[in-house]
Write a structure and sequence with these properties.
heterodimer, A: alpha/beta, four-stranded antiparallel sheet, 8 helices, 22% strand, B: mainly alpha, MetI-like fold, 2 domains, 10 helices
């Protein structure tokens, strides 16, 4: 399956590129510096995890990359183009599933098609085709047969599965995940890591995962980036070498634990 | 108490309490020898209702239509202004103080002005019902729109949704429970408005009927008019509740499905 037009770009040029990006909240002088001359690039199809102490600007990174917030300084490029407005064809998933309670699960996952051109012009006529696509996706995350339920009839873990489906159903070239598994219990979380990996292995979108959970970062990512305490800067990077698909067994290997340990050493709470 | 008999009791409670109070009232009038000119007993009111059945229905109809017209205008206008206020900070800042000020004006004071402009008749009643009932609708709809989860707005905007799409896909649907909650308040207020206008400047309607009855010292008929207003208001309130449950079942989550 393709990952959008950007897939045809020359290999080696980063898909997401931040150069010297700073962002200040509030007024210039007494504002809160959230990102400080951050430089980071993510290759096409790469899965990058960003970890760091609480309040280090990880969520701000999400806003800057997707164009929901303009950087105060520096350059942000996605797919080779400078970001000046909200970037289109991005998938977003947050800690809260934010499904629409008046819609069924299927209709929730259909939402991106109602907004993105050209799908929104075709949806009415080819609805059956789109519904089929959604149901197929729901089945791959273990939600087969739940399409007609309402979100509030499902457990938190199931809602989050549907949320992931909504984030990738339109085959975005970039998926941004802001602690999507943080509110789940440990077992459900581990299960969803594997669901996430599966989705990524089939679709191969570029993904940036913001998380507090180091095991999650190491299991899912090709590369883990450590942010400093605010203002956020990249202080450490580590490539994760394990072959795919990784399993929960991977997380018990000595090498895995060593990487987690190494990363933990680098994270210092804000002083 | 078994579950079944408790459910029956719950269903009967409104009738038990209402008729209990009416019975107590009847008894009190009887035992304390209260003159029907001061406080007519429910039996006297019922007799008046039977004797004046046709005029009561006729005037009730007039009050009902004025109320519903005003209420309909309030829903349309209230939603429109509520959506605008909830969606745009500029509109909110510009309009809100004005609305709050306007809402604080006693509507009694406005009826003579309306009569001056539109003459005695239906129009002042409709307009009074409208202006008294649209404020709660505005406030509630605006709240529903303004409390949209920021994450959800981000999800939509990063899909390339326009402001209009955010509003129609999410804003308005999620404000519906707020709207229906306000309709329950607004419908009773609309009756207050129309009867008020009929009392001050009407040529028909229950307000007019009650003023006439009061001029003729016909207390039972006066009370019959009050009862007619109350009965209609309870009926329309129930209609609003039924609509609410139908339209926004999701907002009640599982409660109604069980």
């Amino acid at each position: 399956m393709g990952t959008g037009e950007a897939a045809h770009e020359s290999i080696g040029s980063p898909f997401v590129e931040l150069r010297d990006v700073s962002l200040t909240y509030g007024e210039d002088d007494d504002g809160l510096l959230s990102l400080d001359r951050l430089t980071l690039s993510v290759q096409q199809g790469e899965f990058v995890a960003v970890v760091g102490p609480s309040g280090c600007g990880k969520s701000t990174l999400m806003k800057v990359v997707t164009g929901l917030k303009a950087a105060s300084h520096g350059e942000v490029k996605v797919g080779g183009e400078a970001v000046t407005a909200p970037v289109k064809n991005v998938g977003l998933a947050f800690q809260s599933a934010t499904l629409l309670p008046w819609r069924t699960i299927t209709d929730n996952v259909l939402l991106p098609f109602e907004i993105i051109a050209p799908h929104k012009y075709r949806l009415r006529q080819e609805r059956a085709h789109y519904v089929e696509q959604v149901e197929h996706l729901l089945a791959t995350v273990g939600l087969a047969g739940f399409g007609k339920r309402f979100s509030w009839q499902l457990s938190g873990g199931m809602q989050q599965r549907a949320n992931l489906c909504r984030a990738i159903v339109h085959k975005p070239s970039l998926l941004m995940l802001d602690e999507p598994f943080a509110a789940l219990d440990a077992f459900t979380r581990e299960e969803l890591w594997l669901v996430m990996q599966n989705l990524w292995l089939t679709e191969r979108f570029t993904a940036i995962l913001v998380t507090h959970e180091l095991r999650e970062a190491v299991l899912l990512a090709d590369r883990v980036v450590v942010f400093s305490a605010r203002p956020g800067q990249v202080i450490y990077e580590r490539v994760v070498p394990f072959a795919r698909p990784r399993t929960l067994e991977t997380t018990y290997q000595a090498e895995f634990t060593a990487i987690v340990h190494d990363l933990r050493e680098k994270i210092r709470p804000p002083s | 108490m078994s579950g079944r008999s408790r459910r029956i009791l719950i269903a009967l409670m409104p009738w038990l309490v209402t008729f209990g109070i009416l019975g107590f009232w009847e008894l009190a009038c009887d035992l304390l020898h209260i003159h029907s000119f001061i406080l007519p007993a429910p039996s006297a009111i019922a007799a008046a209702m039977a004797a004046y059945a046709w005029p009561l229905v006729d005037h009730s109809w007039r009050t009902l239509t004025s109320t519903l017209l005003g209420f309909g205008l309030a829903i349309a206008g209230g939603m429109l202004i509520g959506i605008a206020i909830g969606f745009s900070t500029l509109v909110y800042k510009g309009l809100y103080p004005l609305l709050v000020g306007f809402n604080a004006i006693p509507k009694v004071a406005m009826v003579p002005i309306l009569v001056l402009w539109f003459g005695i008749g239906v129009v002042p009643a409709v307009i009074t019902a409208f202006i008294i009932s649209f404020f709660p609708i505005v406030v509630n709809v605006a709240t529903g729109i303004a409390t949209l989860e920021p994450e959800l707005a981000d999800v939509l905007r990063s899909l390339g949704a326009s402001h209009w799409e955010v509003l129609t896909k999410v804003g308005i649907p999620r404000s519906l429970p707020y709207l229906f909650a306000s309709l329950k308040v607004a419908i009773t207020l609309a009756f207050v408005g129309s009867v008020l206008a009929e009392t001050i400047g009407g040529n028909a309607g229950l307000g007019y009927l009650m003023v006439t009855a009061s001029a003729e010292f016909d207390a039972p008929l006066l009370f019959a008019g009050l009862f007619a207003v109350a009965i209609m208001a309870v009926g329309l309130y129930a209609v609003c509740v039924a609509f609410e449950r139908r339209m926004t079942q999701w907002a009640f989550r599982g409660e109604l499905l069980s």
